[in-house]
Amino acid sequence: MKLLTVIGARPQFIKAATVSRALAAHHPDSREILVHTGQHYDANMSDVFFDELDIPRPGHHLGIGGGSHGQNTGRMLEKLDALMVQEKPDWVLVYGDTDSTLAGALAAAKLHIPVAHVEAGLRSFNRRMPEEINRVLTDHVADLLFAPTQLALRNLQKEGIADSKIHVVGDVMYDAALYYRPLARKPAWFDALKVGEFALCTIHRAENTDDPERMRGILAGLAESPLPVVLPLHPRTRKQLAQFHLGLPDTVRAVDPVGYLEMVWLESHCRLVVTDSGGVQKEAYFHGKPCVTLRDETEWVELVEVGANVLVGTDEARIQNALASMRPCVGDQQHLYGQGDSAQRLLDQLIRGASH
Q1: Overall pTM > 0.70
Q2: Interval 175-197: pLDDT, tens
Q3: Which region is the signal sequence (predicted)?
Q4: For a tag site, which of 29, 49, 140, 353 has the least CB within 10 Å?
Q5: Alpha carbons 140 and 136: distance in angstroms, whole number
Q6: CA gap 354, 246 in Å, rounded
Q7: CA distance 253 to 273
């Protein structure tokens, strides 16, 4: 089997690495071609990033990024079309909900190359989010849809997608959490804080960072935190805070962005997580930490249903109440997202499909 994998952001590299490792371990006769669109330029994606995380380097780098959603998707389509004609893969594999995801799926579908989508079936039901558009369109052109949960399966069934295309395999992010947890690294600056006695916060979504009123609500809520708040400060968030003349409250300790292994350590050793990130919501659950989500909706609805996650938007009072009342998660963190063998399960389906 010849597999062409399209990725464009650091979280997608981490997810794809779990599948690459499983492919090398269990299907050595298969070949994978990794294509980095360049959608998210990340200065942390140096040689150290690939070496420390045991991630294969991309075979192709398209160098596309920095434009609008339409510009990026169009330029990616053009370059991916030519690359797929050249490589002639048996499958094109895409992850998640970025412009790279949609471009990879569309390019393959128009060339009649089978498409497989990892993290299929997620829905926030907010069509104003570009990620939601990317998810829905990718699911409807995909030939194999790898759903992480039963809820994702039901979402796809409601949209009329054939059951024969859908496979509930669990979540490759849980595979990654298990793999990287023993490798996690304490940040050098952490010694002034106490393990288990801080809240970990991330803020990066444009709907929050680009709206001064939403940012004021978040900061006012964090100001009343009963715990010190560690905030790895995203460059866009730092820039917008300065533009809006907003200062951080005394409860918040801003630090430079952290690497993935440091982030895993912080998630594992905090009391709770406060975030507007989709991936961090799940990682908090994997590490048994309650999550306060600074959004009005989430694609990870099951976390809210089991009480591991609470949606507070940017309302000051709701943020304060959640910070004071959230308790550690109880129960089996594996239950919702599989047993840590999602990569192997989805590869079994791809191999089976390639042989037909």
Answers
A1: yes
A2: 999 999 999 999 999 998 999 99
A3: none
A4: 29
A5: 6
A6: 54
A7: 14
